[in-house]
Design a protein that fits this description.
Layout (H helix, E strand, L loop, with lengths): L1 H31 L31 E8 L2 E12 L2 E4 L1 H4 L7 E5 L14 E10 L13 E5 L21 E8 L2 E4 L4 E4 L4 E4 L2 E2 L1 H9 L13 E5 L14 E6 L2 E13 L8 E6 H14 L7
Antiparallel strand pairs: 1-2, 1-4, 2-3, 3-6, 4-5, 5-6, 7-10, 7-13, 8-9, 11-12, 12-15, 13-14, 14-15
Length: 303
Amino acid sequence: MIKIVIFAVLVSLVCAYNNDQNNQNSQNLQSQIPCGFKNNGVVRLRLYGPEKDTAYDDREFPWVVEILFQEQAYQKHHCGGSLIHPQIVLTAAHCVQNKNVTDLRLRAGECDTNPMCDFEKDQYRGVSEIVVHEEYYKGGLYNDIALLMLDAPFEIDQYVRTVCLPPPNVQSSNCFATGWGLNYNQEAQAPNYNVAVQKISVPIVPRQQCESTLKTSRLGESFVLHKSFLCAGGETTKDTTQGDGGAPLVCEFAGESERFYQLGIVSYGVLVGSSYPGVYADVSVLRGWVDRKLQERGVTYLY
């Protein structure tokens, strides 16, 4: 009996040591390359509809992560996410609530079906823990935020990097939403998920203006924009869509040109491709929750 107890204690100590080593290694990886700097590629412009996309280079936003759903022997696109730490992905709660860790697989260093693209740069990881905001409300998608703890850190390199989390009370400009969501296939006459990350430039919409606009939609006059949301977009034919949930909305901030912070997480929209703004989980408002969850797990967030 004593031998069994000693063995169990040794196993727990080894596991704790390995977890500490993984956290230390992850922090070392993140400190090598600062967060928020994109590559110089040109990604296709997202136009929802039959318009032709422009040619593009790959991996402009190296923090974008694809969340795949494991279904029997197949993996299919499920949602988007962002790498905020080599071993942590930020996404929407509605993407992962009630999912098992074995259901999900993550891909970073995204490549597409272009034969000139180097698929060896893709990295895949499993999920060890799903952390959903305790006050997430499925009915209205309030506090639509979650963290995915990975079973091993992504290797930080030219193609896989972290995005910065926003400090409070910042002025943003030059914002982009990215994702793999549905795109209209003119030949097939049906929507399909994109094979590569798409982007749209979207302006941040002031809260009062967004709420007033959404009151004229099917949401009705009684609609109130929850404090955990922000709005962006509202330009016809330029919008996020189904399959973009959980993907990041990133912006440059005054005084830090070419460095991007994640201001939002794609949550929902009223009518795709319309003049209604898209609704995003507000990362600056929910930043305190993220910090607490990282602190509870002994993770230090590095800018």
